């Protein structure tokens, strides 16, 4: 069971590494992204060597018992070193001189970690007393071996110090990002999840240290060192992976949700004007998750293109009538704006289909919640007055109410008003 669990997580982790590496190769100047690739690779290697069967297979291959543990912990140390460099970069300050100092400190930190870890590996080499494999109970099997204990204590010190520092700084950096962008971004969310993984990783370190102390005191607690500690480390590693994945996966998941909500409206409004569409049909058919953000942006832009083209087909008072009817059913401002825009959009498409052009057309059929006079000057003003995500949500609400009974009521009234002068 452990093999399946750890290898599945390893496969997921290496997928994230591959994705981030591809993004870094496209943007080689982004050092933070490069560090994220290295740190994610460290977590992926930990999952890989945590699988007991692979652990034993590797040791049989090299002919050294428990050498896989050195590679496993070395991967953790790589993660820790990357975290220290990331911390120094984030706290460097502004200006080239500050960045130069940060680079110098980063080289010193990595050098110090390398020296300490070399000493730890030497301790492992001279202190390993037998050739018995211990993939699940390594720390308790060698409690009385000074060399192995040096190896383990240095490992926990390097790992724990980096976790504490990263867990402290990530929420602060996330708060700065949230304040700068007027809301929580996916990067900020990822940093908070990463911080949670770091703090849970400290629980792992604490369990190991307490387990050592109890063993030395003559009260061994293998359930703590070999049970609680690995479990907390595994969950912490999953949270760390999630923290690294969220900045990339979050926007794509949001784009997928937008596509699902916008697509019915987009198909309806562009059916009569296929010339405005620019779908990448071939690739989309082969892989439906390709270009999600591009497709979501295109759908919104193409809906707006259609709206601009039908303004002259919409009566100038159509939006006001829709608003008045919407107020009668106690809708909030956002819902009211969506109803007004959906009614104007349907009326414009209906009139265009029969070639009807009212004497007084609407200035715009794009409606902004809370806007003075009820209508916006156009799509650009709407985009300037709100976050892009808010505009997506507004159009999604338009899609939700597009075929509602309330819209049918508004359209019936508009048809009657339009037909009355002809009687």
What is the residue-averaged pLDDT?
Answer: 84
Structural class by secondary-structure content: mainly alpha
Give the overall shape: elongated
- Rg measurement, Å: 30 Å
Number of helices: 16
Oligomer: single chain
Please report the distance between the alpha carbons of the first and last residues.
79 Å
Helix content: over 70%
| Number of DSSP E strands | 0
Low-confidence sequence ranges: 280-287, 370-386
Task: Give the helices and strands as they follow along the chain.
Answer: HHHHHHHHHHHHHHHH
**Major sheet details:** none
Q: Which range does the strand content fall in?
A: under 5%
Structure commentary:
The protein is an all-alpha fold and 423 residues long. Helix content is 77%, strand content 0%. The protein is built from 16 helices and no strands. The chain has helices spanning 2-26, 31-50, 52-62, 67-90, 96-127, 138-141, 146-180, 186-216, 222-270, 281-286, 292-310, 318-327, 333-354, 379-385, 388-401, 405-419. Helix 9 (222-270) packs across helix 15. The N and C termini lie far apart (79 Å). The model is unreliable at 280-287 and 370-386 (pLDDT under 50).
How would you concisely characterize the structure shown here?
Helix content is 77%, strand content 0%. With 423 residues, the protein is mainly alpha-helical.
């Amino acid at each position: 069971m452990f093999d399946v669990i750890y290898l599945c997580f390893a496969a997921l982790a290496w997928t994230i590494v591959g994705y981030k590496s591809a993004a870094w190769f496209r943007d080689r100047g982004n050092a933070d992204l490069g560090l994220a690739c290295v740190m994610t690779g460290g977590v992926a290697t930990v999952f890989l060597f945590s699988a007991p069967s692979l652990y034993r297979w590797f040791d049989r291959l090299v002919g050294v018992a428990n050498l896989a543990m050195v590679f496993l912990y070395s991967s953790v140390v790589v993660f820790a070193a990357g975290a220290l460099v990331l911390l120094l970069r984030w706290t460097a300050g502004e200006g080239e001189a500050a960045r130069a100092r940060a680079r110098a400190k980063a080289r010193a930190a990595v050098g110090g970690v390398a020296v300490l870890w070399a000493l730890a590996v030497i301790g492992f080499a001279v202190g390993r007393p037998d050739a018995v494999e211990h993939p699940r109970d390594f720390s308790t099997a060698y409690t009385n071996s000074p060399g192995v204990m040096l190896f383990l204590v240095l490992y926990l010190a390097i790992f724990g110090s980096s976790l504490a520092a990263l867990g402290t700084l990530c929420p602060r950096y996330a708060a700065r990002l949230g304040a700068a962008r007027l809301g929580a971004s996916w990067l900020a969310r990822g940093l908070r999840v990463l911080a949670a993984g770091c703090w849970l990783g400290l629980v792992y370190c604490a369990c190991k240290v307490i387990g050592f102390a109890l063993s030395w005191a003559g009260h061994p607690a293998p359930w703590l060192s070999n049970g609680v500690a690995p479990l907390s480390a595994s969950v912490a590693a999953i949270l760390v992976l999630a923290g690294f994945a969220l900045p990339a996966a979050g926007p794509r998941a949001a784009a997928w949700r937008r596509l699902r909500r916008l697509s019915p409206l987009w198909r309806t409004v562009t059916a009569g004007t296929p010339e405005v569409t620019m779908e990448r049909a071939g690739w989309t058919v082969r892989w439906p998750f390709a270009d999600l953000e591009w497709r979501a942006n295109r759908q919104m832009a193409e809906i707006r293109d259609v709206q601009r083209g039908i303004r002259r087909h919409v009566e100038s008072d159509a939006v006001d009538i829709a608003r008045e009817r919407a107020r009668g059913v106690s809708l909030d401002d956002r819902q009211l704006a969506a109803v007004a825009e959906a009614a104007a959009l349907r009326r414009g498409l209906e009139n265009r289909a029969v070639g009807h052009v009212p004497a007084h057309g609407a200035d715009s059929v794009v409606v902004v919640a809370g806007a003075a006079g009820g209508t916006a000057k156009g799509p650009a003003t709407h985009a300037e007055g709100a976050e892009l995500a808010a505009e997506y949500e507004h159009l999604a609400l338009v899609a939700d109410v597009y075929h509602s009974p309330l819209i049918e009521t508004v359209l019936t009234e508009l048809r009657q008003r339009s037909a009355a002068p002809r009687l």
